[in-house]
Design goal:
Number of helices: 14
Number of domains: 1
Pfam families: MFS_3 (PF05977)
Number of strands: 4
Subcellular location: Cell membrane
Structural class: mainly alpha
Shape: globular
Protein name: MFS transporter
Radius of gyration: 22 Å
Order of helices and strands: EHHHHHHHHHHEHHHHEE
Membrane topology: Multi-pass membrane protein
CATH architecture: Up-down Bundle
CATH class: Mainly Alpha
Main location: membrane
Length: about 450
């Protein structure tokens, strides 16, 4: 199923949440000089610049947090529990964040949430730098930070549309993913150096400073240049309205199902890389930071590649998820740090190609008046899945061995992608064709009957 552009009509009134509002999309591959087109918008430039700094700091804190838990406890399972504590609020409460995003100012929500995140990072920094940090401190702060994420993430996703408008939305989503991965390249490497040189406490202090800068940057955004939607009035049944809306759209429900499997198994890669760095290759915190940087390097390529797509297709989203699973299965057999690191670059590329394309497809398929609630459900699945997957994959790594855990982490997304692909093929009346005369198109998909929309 392809997402095709609807007629370019204008609506003065707030659109009904029943159907997707008309959106401006592209039908041809954009030229290279349009790869960063959304950065021409002043408000988005301010947001993106602050976001890059913040993401670098968040990655620094994330790596320092995981490594310090591993050092303090000596347990990979404890690292998984930290992931669980940080993400379990999203699994339970994220839809409430979506309602907040639809009802109130997204910029105000982000300013409050970033202030809270900065305070939490400052507390972690003080505890770590004074030598009083214990594992239970990290658990508690990770849980409270998870509550902050419940309010932050839906508002952040929807706020991008207000910054750039519908015409530039796909480009801005891809650039946001690129920014996240650029931060993922720099942050882990810097954090690894800091941990070895002066300790992980300074990574938390850097994140506290970055949160402060983010709040200041949000205050500089010009409200009169935002593409604002009227806030949704308080009413009963708004959460279920979002659920029903999502369930009736294949371009939302299938990416969400794939994201659930992807999150539980595939997005626990950081837990497994910590085990590989500490137990298999014995490369310490610096090696762990390097592995995170290599994943982010590939992911940056995947995010930028997503800006080149002319159309969004469900089958392309599923193929990216399946490819990621296969790559992780290959990683489980890597004999050395060099070969494992090389595979991690490819894993990062496939991972972000799926995550960015799925995010674009869900957002572009959703009416702006209900987008906060729909995105909160999608984020709940994506982040909440990591709450379950972190402890699970940590336990598997300790009791089965990290290689077997990596095999499971890749095998489950690959299997899910195949199953969903078969369902989509049946729904779209598609079949496989084999052409032995062409090496370029040996196997390809065609409709069984004419007039069917490709998926």
């Amino acid at each position: 199923m392809a997402l095709t552009p609807p007629p370019a009509t204008q609506h003065a009134a707030q659109p009904s949440a029943t159907h997707t509002a008309p959106l401006n999309t592209v039908t041809t591959r954009p030229p290279w000089n349009q790869t960063f087109s959304s950065l021409k918008i002043r408000n988005y430039r301010i947001f993106a610049s602050a976001n890059l700094l913040a993401v670098i700091a968040v990655w620094m804190q994330r790596v320092a947090q995981d490594w310090m838990v591993l050092e303090l406890s000596g347990s990979v399972t404890a690292v998984g529990i930290t992931v669980f504590m940080q993400f379990i609020p999203s699994l339970v409460l994220m839809p409430l964040g979506g309602i907040l995003a639809d009802r109130y100012s997204k910029r105000l929500i982000l300013m409050i949430s970033q202030s809270a995140a900065g305070i939490l990072a400052a507390i972690m920094a003080v505890l770590a730098l004074t030598g009083h940090l214990e594992v239970w401190h990290i658990y508690v702060i990770a849980f409270v930070l998870g509550l902050v994420v419940v309010a932050d993430q839906p508002a952040r996703q929807v706020f991008v549309n207000e910054l750039v408008g519908p015409r530039q939305l796909r480009n801005a989503i891809s650039l946001n993913s690129s920014i996240f991965q650029m931060g993922g390249m720099v942050g882990p490497a810097v954090s690894g150096v800091l941990i070895m040189a002066v300790g992980g406490g300074w990574a938390f202090a850097a994140n506290a400073l970055a949160c402060t800068i983010t709040v200041i940057s949000l205050s500089r955004i010009r409200a009169n240049e935002l593409v604002q939607m009227p806030p949704v009035k308080r009413a009963k049944g708004q959460l279920m309205e979002g659920v029903r809306y999502a369930l009736h759209k294949p371009t939302i429900v299938f990416p969400a199902i794939m994201a659930a499997v992807f999150a539980v198994f595939g997005l626990s890669l950081a837990v497994l890389m910590a085990a590989y760095a500490n137990n298999v290759f014995d490369v310490g915190a610096g090696g762990y930071g390097l592995l995170n940087t290599l994943v982010a390097l590939g992911a940056l390529g995947g995010a930028l590649a997503s800006t080149r797509f002319a159309t969004l297709r469900l089958r392309s989203v599923m193929m990216a998820a399946g490819a990621y699973g296969v790559v992780l299965m290959i990683a489980s057999t890597a004999p050395s740090m060099a070969s494992f690191g090389a595979v991690m670059v490819v894993a990062g590329f496939c991972s972000l190609l799926f995550l960015t394309s799925a995010n674009q497809l869900v957002q572009m398929s959703t009416n702006v008046s209900i987008r906060g609630r729909v995105m909160s459900l999608y984020i709940m699945v994506l982040i909440g899945g990591q709450a379950l997957g972190g402890p699970l994959m940590g336990w598997l790594a300790e009791h089965w061995g990290v290689q077997w855990a990596m095999l499971v982490a890749g095998g489950m997304p690959a299997l899910a992608a195949v199953v969903i692909g078969l369902v989509l093929a049946k729904r779209g009346q598609l079949t496989l064709k084999v052409n032995l005369r062409s090496a370029r198109r040996l196997v390809f998909i065609v409709p069984r009957a004419t007039g069917q929309e490709p998926v």
